[in-house]
Amino acid sequence: xxxxxxxxxxxxxxxxxxxxxxxxxxxxxxxxxxxxxxxxxxxxxxxxxxxxxxxxxxxxxxxxxxxxxxxxxxxxxxxxxxxxxxxxxxxxxxxxxxxx
Length: 100
Fold this sequence. Notes:
By secondary structure, the protein is mostly helical. The chain has one domain (10-85). The protein contains 4 helices and 2 strands.
């Protein structure tokens, strides 16, 4: 496996952390936003249920699942951008062993 310069590694982790913070903000808004504004959101109905109930019962879970898939795709894109590709690492290390 090839080594990564410290400056490149710092940029890589900075970009990964930036997206993690974004995911946490979305998680917070979806989880607690519906609760904080429940009275206001109760005027909106989806399938006969108030919006705050719908978000708590189904919307939050669906949002979290979508965030998981988005995180996987974005992480793969960032990995390839910085040369951290699993297939490439397998090719680089093929045939090499480390004796302990």
